[in-house]
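Bit of a strange request maybe. I'm writing a small parser for structure token strings and I need a real example to test against, not something I typed by hand. Could someone generate the tokens for this chain?
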Amino acid sequence: MGSQTKNSYWNSVSGVLRTVFPDSADPEKLRVYRAWEVWPEVVGPANAKKAQPTKFRNGKLFVTVLHPALMQELQFVKERIRRRLNHLIGAETITHIYFGRGPIRGKDVAPPSPPQRTLPQFREVTIPPIDNPEISAAFESLLTARRRRLAKPSEDD
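Reply from user aminoacidic:
Good idea to test on real output. This should exercise your parser:
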């Protein structure tokens, strides 16, 4: 199997998933939430207790900092922090870091919840046209089996 065939196979699968779940978040965009996990590694555990990411929007990571002196210190190294975060995230997702003064909530602030995905009713899910008949048949088989399973009354009823 050549690399072009393999790529078109994966493009087909990703295209199908985007069509079946159109409102789901892009996995690449969700990658930024890993910044909350690696933040202490990037700025050090002591600084992480006094400066924590609070939100991410349009490539901008907003960080709340407890003390103005620390905010000044982080400002001097923010480009290095940004590069290290992107390296650990595995993508150039963070384009800017903005520091703001404010209280730190709790010992460890968790990342914001990933966007909620709205899914269509399962009976409304259809398979879009797929050039590869094997992939198309596999998805149809999967949907048919799942619909049958959902139609069975559960033993708990």
